[in-house]
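Changelog note: in this version the structure field was regenerated for every chain. One regenerated record is shown below for reference.
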Amino acid sequence: MADNQQQNTQVQFLLTDLNTRIKDIEERNSSLRERIILLSQNTINLKEGMEQKMNEIEKKQNQINIDMKKLKSMLDNVLSEISNFTRKDEIMLVERMLKDFQPLEFVRRKDVEEMINTALTGEYKIAKYKNTESVENT
């Protein structure tokens, strides 16, 4: 009987030890399950975030491509029109011609007609005298 009781205590000890180990394994298993769920949620969130960023990058890339096409067409237009521009040496030639010509020293037709009218009417001397008086008074 003592032998039987000793066997029963050993069996109970083994059963409680086995029960404790099973509870530990179940806790580890539930802990691992929770970690796996968290990892899968994080992975899904990261995937969604990456997809959004990729979509934004694709939109920006498409916009950049459109802008590049516009710039290329404008550059082509500028390059085709550049032959119509005046060269620097041509401008310098015209500038020299204008310096020799001095168009600012020409008299307008209206001014000549006024000078003739004043000379014919004799008012030229009076107008000249009035102009010098107004200069002296100022």
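Spot check on this record: The chain has a mean pLDDT of 85. Residues 2-85 form one domain.
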